[in-house]
Amino acid sequence: MKLSARGAVEPFHAMDVLAEATKRRAAGRPVISMAVGQPVHPAPHAAREAARRALDVGRIGYTDALGLLSLRSAIADFYQRRHGVTVDPARIAITTGSSAGFNLAFLALFDAGDRVAIARPGYPAYRNILAALGIETVEIEVNAENGFTLTPEALEAAASARGRIDGVLLASPANPTGTVTGRANLAALSAYCRDNGIAFISDEIYHGLTFVGEEATALQFGEDAVIINSFSKYYCMTGWRIGWMVLPTALARPVERIAQSLYISAPELSQIAAEAALGAEAELNVYRDAYRVNRDFLVKRLPEIGFSIASPMDGAFYAYVDVSRFTNDSMAFARRMLAETDVAATPGIDFDPRDGNHTMRFSYAGAFEEMSEAVDRLARWLA
């Protein structure tokens, strides 16, 4: 059988670690998984009740490819209420999680051979999806010198070295670094892309989970950015597979055409639940405060056991740490750690193919008791 080269992309190692952790848990091992960004909390009560009512009626079917108008209107109201930005619901597309949003954005904006700049370290699915589509990634190192975020100066230098950049993808808060790109920096990046005819994609799926700094949407600096968001993280709805995009007007119909053939529509049941979740901020902010407690605990304890913090934990729910004191092979270290302590975390090689062998990412989206127990196990193991 002839196989496509597209299937030869790097695996998402976090999911491989999760699969091994799940297998060990099924075998009766006391596994604590800090490998993926899976909130310990359930979907908001209102979302679950809305889904129950819909199931009682039982008429769950296709929706328009761009999603239920009521949900798209509710998201438009959210931007007005939260950020003071007016968005036409016609510019909003409901997607099967943010993952489908990235697929749609990449397909609608770029052709094979185009170049898209992303941060390194950064979310591996960006790099892998782009590679599968024949789009070249221009990875730009982010570190303390540039505030762990992309800047116009870094993009200018990358373009000089690699050739024209056709797109820029920025996450804030970022995975795995936790970077929150401030309002001024986000405005400067947006303006640079606009002035240079570069497509700008703003990944905002960790909005609502900012602990330090100012949370801004790229919509505040113009209507030409593509916004990708999700109900997975702040709204604790990972398994519902529901997200959204805010699109420039000219991009709405191309995205709709591609979505019609790739997905038909996002699941209607999840759309109904998501609309109810938009009004659950009081409940969700209690969950966010629990992540903050976990964050503050790990900021103190991880360095005490030998894992220095490698980047600011300002947002999202990840600790990205330097483990070079113990290993120069983060994948082997992650496997051994799981086998010997039943604690799962993600090797840094997932996020940084060049320098990630000495880093690890720990998710702190779990229960505090699990965070505490995991650190105690690791402390004994490392000692």
From TrEMBL:
The protein, known as: aspartate transaminase
InterPro entries assigned to the protein according to its UniProt record, in alphabetical order: Aminotransferase_I/II_large, AspAT/PAT-like, PyrdxlP-dep_Trfase, PyrdxlP-dep_Trfase_major
Q: What is its EC number?
A: 2.6.1.1
Family, per entry: Belongs to the class-I pyridoxal-phosphate-dependent aminotransferase family.
Q: In which organism is this protein found?
A: Shinella sedimenti
Ranges where the Aminotransferase class I/classII large domain occurs: 30-378
Q: Which UniProt keywords apply?
A: Aminotransferase, Pyridoxal phosphate, Transferase
Record-linked CDD domains: AAT_like
Q: Name one Pfam family in it.
A: Aminotran_1_2
Residues folding into a coiled coil are none
Q: What is its cofactor?
A: pyridoxal 5'-phosphate
Q: Which GO terms describe its molecular function?
A: transaminase activity
Catalytic function, reaction form: L-aspartate + 2-oxoglutarate = oxaloacetate + L-glutamate
